[in-house]
Amino acid sequence: MTGGALEINGLAKNFGEDRVLHGVDLSVPAGSVTAVVGASGCGKTTLLRLVAGFETPDAGTISIAGRTVADADDCVPAHRRDVGYVAQDGALFPHLTVGQNIAYGLSGSTRSTRARVTELLATVSLDADMAHRRPHQLSGGQQQRVALARALAREPALMLLDEPFSALDTGLRSSTRKAVAQLLAEAGVTTLLVTHDQEEALSIADQVAVMRDGRFTKVGTPQQVYFTPGDEFTARFLGDCVLLPGTITSRVADCSLGRVPVRDGAADGRATLVLRPEQLVATTVSDGDHGAGVGTVLSSEFRGHDVLLVVDVGGGEPITVRQHGLDPPTVDAKVRVDVVGTAATLDERP
Fold first, then answer.
1. For residue 349, pLDDT beyond 50
2. How much is the pLDDT for 348?
3. Least packed by Cβ within 10 Å: which of 122, 145, 173, 280?
4. Which class for 134: exposed (0-12), middle (13-18), buried (19 or more C-beta within 10 A)?
5. Locate the ABC transporter domain: which residues (predicted)?
6. Is the pLDDT reported for residue 89 higher than 80?
């Protein structure tokens, strides 16, 4: 089934005196995955519930596959929106078996339904014999995977996922989300995922929307929001970052690391540069070396495949360098920090 696009325009929601969403706009291309990421309480789950039809907006419109399902005059009930919804707790029917939960709402012969249930169990990494168990006989992670399978069973035009992998351990979370992403892509289902896990959002989504206090601070591809975050909140929320004051002249910035190229569109003058720690490389130098980018390793945190170094290069806060864990510079070593790629600049507007 070909999924339809989701269009959200000017969406606002209050709970009493508390404004939760402030005129949110979002366009989700057909067949793609958009992840809304933000801290607890920022409004992302409320957004999902409005799209699902569990809440009524105070202003704005929601359209699914070209059909308006919510506006100032009307709100289509949840069961008529052709959406699949997976909540954090799974919300399985306790009186039904796993197989009956997954098959709920499916039409067709008993044989075809059983085959579909077996296929979906495999997709979410569960054995076929679990179809005969009851929800209370499963772990929390297993229950969540059954909930995913149930939502996928009818191949909805729009899939809504609210922290669907949060109950899974790290290894299973990664494999399950890859399998689910592949299935959604093959089915052409437009998907809106809500998560607080930045790595999950960046890895699974075609588009990432960062939310803060009921507003989006940045919407774009994973690469765009990560490497050109625009503001300090977004930069820090999506991972470790290095912020450096500098002066830009003709797309080159002078800063404590020397002359660093900046991305297109950066205006000349004073600016705050933003780099990711993996864009920096620390190389041990002799005690007699001096100049921009030369400093001392203050600490080293070995993480197996990589190492985090904190380096004092003078002229401001120490910087964080993330590089491979093979033979890294030691604590107190003198190093030169070089930049790989280009720096972005922060939006200085309030």
1. no
2. 54
3. 122
4. middle
5. 6-238
6. no
Q: Of the residues 201, 227, 253, which one is the last residue of a structural domain?
A: 227
145-181 pLDDT, tens digit each: 888 889 888 878 899 999 888 777 777 777 777 777 8
Q: Which of 191, 160, 149 is nearest to 4 (CA)?
A: 191
**What tokens appear for 281 in the block?**
């490389």
161 in the same domain as 65: yes
Helix, strand and coil content of the chain, in percent to the nearest 5, comes to: 25, 35, 40
CA distance linking residue 144 with residue 140, whole number of Å: 6
Which whole number is the average pLDDT over 118-124?
88
Task: Say if residue 220 is in the same domain as residue 254.
Answer: no
* 3-state SS class at 88: coil
Please report the pLDDT score of residue 168 as a whole number.
74
Contacts of 115 (CB under 8 A, 6+ apart): none
* 245 lies in the same domain as 223: no
Q: Is the pLDDT of residue 350 over 70?
A: no
Q: Average pLDDT for residues 130-140, to the nearest whole number? A: 90
| Rounded (10°) angle between helices 170-187 and 110-123 | 130
1 domain residue, yes or no:
no
HEC per residue, 187-217: HCCEEEEEECCHHHHHHHCCEEEEEECCEEE
Domain end position, chosen among 198, 227, 256: 227
CATH at residue 323 = 2.40.50.140
Secondary structure letter of residue 143 according to DSSP = H
State pTM to two decimals.
0.86
How much is the mean pLDDT over the chain? 90
Residue type, 84: G
Task: Report the distance separating Cα 35 and Cα 51, nearest Å.
Answer: 14
